[in-house]
Amino acid sequence: MPRRPVRRAAIAVVGLIVAANAVSAMHAWRFTHYVAEPVGTGTAAPEALSFAQRAAVLLTGVVVPRPTVGKRPEDLGLKARGVRKGGLAMWQIQGDRHGTVLLFPGYAACKSDLLDEAGAFHDLGWSTVLVDPPGVGDSDGSTTTLGWAEADAVATIAAEPHDGPLVLYGKSMGSAAILRAVGALGVTADALVLENPYDRLTTTVGHRFEALGLPAWPGADLLVLWGGLELGFNGFALNPVDYARDVHVPTLLLTGGADPRVHPDEVRAIDAALAGPHELTLFPGAGHVGLQAADAALWDSTIASFLAHWAPFAVSKAELPAGEGLTDGAAVGLGVLHGHTVACGYTLGDARGTLFSGVTGAGALVELHGTPLSLAPDGPRQWIGPTVAVHVHAEPVTACGVRSPGCAEQDVAGTLVVQEGGRVARVGVTGTAACELPRK
């Protein structure tokens, strides 16, 4: 072959590669940078575009208006307090019980889009914190990293003091951010409730190409590449299915049976990868977001049952039945455990649950999510004793069956020591402890 045609072919190939990368870089920028346009004026969903509109989008990229606060808590009869932490904005809504849910929205959404779910959690008694991640609502910025930096926001808010057991709830991108926060950043919680988390960023971006009638490869990979380069993160490492292998927190996954953005099989892959207790509920016929709106009865009952088992409300002394004598074998709620169990020099597993003390002094019942403290293999509830001591800042507060003089309800931040037959387990604990009530 003459040299000139070969050179022309090489130039054409290089030109095609440069053009493909230039277009991909433009698409990535438009996809991750919100614009100051009124909500509702952005590019419609790919499925709703005509052939000509799809061609125009391929040439110019999408227009994604910056999500702004619309509906407010008072519109649902909820009383909220606006709070800021650094550049993050949130609403705090107080519930009737001792337990807190942090809520994180999906892509191109803000805390207003979490109000229906927050109202449902509130009806169950939970306090809620609705968070604007970076770039949306009342938070600073106008960009999104599709779950990467959003995971840092999850870590920041989860590290704040919260009342009772802590639950992290996310929708789509918010769910992916939670999985990265827990699996990669070491965030701790008592339970996770995750709607439609994508398994890999390249997968969910690929589904958008497919919705335009295009193959997922190489467009999805190029878009993820350039989005990461432009915003300083590795999009190819944003894989919730990989993070799930290091998530030991009890996790409830919810997915729509007709979700075009995150297919049910992809959520099942995350479910199979989770290291801790996990459940998956399918909402037949439901799409990508709005599962509570799609089937409120299924959503409410599924979450209520899951949280009652894995993240029971903390019980304070004031909530125990007034004037009732405590009989042999009764139990008094002492608080919620958060920590890591160590016995005989090796790790047993996570200890997260409710601590109960038998009033007879015979022992203590620890309901936890992980390996039982008693080393018993046959379930999460075991009597362990005869001695349980709670240490707050290295000072013992109470022992099972022995009420310290003047003991009062107080926060626990120290070590729970359980001794059984010469074996000792130590659990780092935080939460609220109510000392044992005196018997009649």
Low-confidence stretches: 315-440
Overall SS class:
alpha/beta
Q: What is the number of helical segments per DSSP (H or I, 4+ residues)?
A: 11
Radius of gyration: 25 Å
- Overall structural domain count: 3
Strand order of the largest sheet: 1-2-4-3-5-6-7-8
Roughly how many Å apart are the termini?
A: 103 Å
**Portion of residues in helices?**
25-40%
- How would you spell out the order of helices and strands? HHEEEHEHEHEHHHEHEHHEEEEEEEE
Q: What kind of sheet is the major sheet?
A: 8 strands, mixed
Portion in beta strands: 25-35%
Instruction: Let me know the number of strands.
Output: 16
Q: What is the architecture of the largest domain at the second tier of CATH?
A: 3-Layer(aba) Sandwich
- What is the CATH topology descriptor of the largest domain? Rossmann fold
**What shape does the CA trace take?**
globular
- Could you give me the name of the CATH homologous superfamily of the largest domain? Alpha/Beta hydrolase fold, catalytic domain
Query: What's the CATH first level of the largest domain?
Result: Alpha Beta
